[in-house]
Fold this sequence. Notes:
Blueprint: E1 23-26, E2 33-35, H1 39-52, H2 68-77, H3 83-103, E3 110-112, H4 116-125, E4 129-133, H5 138-147, E5 156-158, H6 166-181, E6 187-191, H7 194-202, E7 206-210, H8 217-221, E8 227-229, H9 232-238
Parallel strand pairs: 1-4, 1-6, 4-5, 6-7, 7-8
Antiparallel strand pairs: 2-3
Helix pairs in contact: 1-3, 3-5, 4-9, 6-7
Amino acid sequence: MDESKPQTGREEGSPADWRDADAYLFDIDGTLLVSRDRVHWQALHQAMLEAYGVDTTIEGIPYHGMTDLGILRAALARVGIAGLTFDLKLPYALSVVCREVEANRQWIVPEVCPGIPQLLARLAAENKLLGVASGNLEAVGWNKIQAAGLREYFRFGCFGDHSETRTAIFERAVEEVRHRLGPPARICFIGDTPEDIWAARRVDATIVAVSTGHFTSPELSCHRPDACVASCAELLAEL
């Protein structure tokens, strides 16, 4: 599928009301929290060193909105590692990332984005199903969420261990919600990148964009999310 062009059955110009959802699925980095430590960064570096034998980093890769798998592919492609060579060693590389994050989880020091604890508590009190839809590997994502003190709110997560595109992750998240709540369940994704908006459109879900990550509100608004806010504190005020 072409990841650059969103596909949606929604009538253009008719945004959905995010407050009507039965389930809310949150991205991690830039949406729930911001990690200023280097634990994840260093884990990716160690994986490329051990699995592929190259001392390179993800510096300069436009990784905002990318999956961990996609980030590794992009970083290694620019040093000449691609195709079958990349694919054969990928399982080991991913295991190294998870191992390194697990071993250094005490050094993960996330900054929780404004309004997040209060919004999660409010949605949970209203019996909404809360989940995670992130391009992080599962072990990486849950360690960040645990370090941020937010783990108790989430019933499930869909991650990038076996999916290189955000759309594939969102598709699995939709399937999980419908398995738990039934096919009529209304779903809202909350993310901080254009890729979150495009992926939500492809699965015909509501999308709220927040500018607590790398992208500004104008940069997100031009992709026509159902709502665009400076932070989740604004969503809390609308409930």
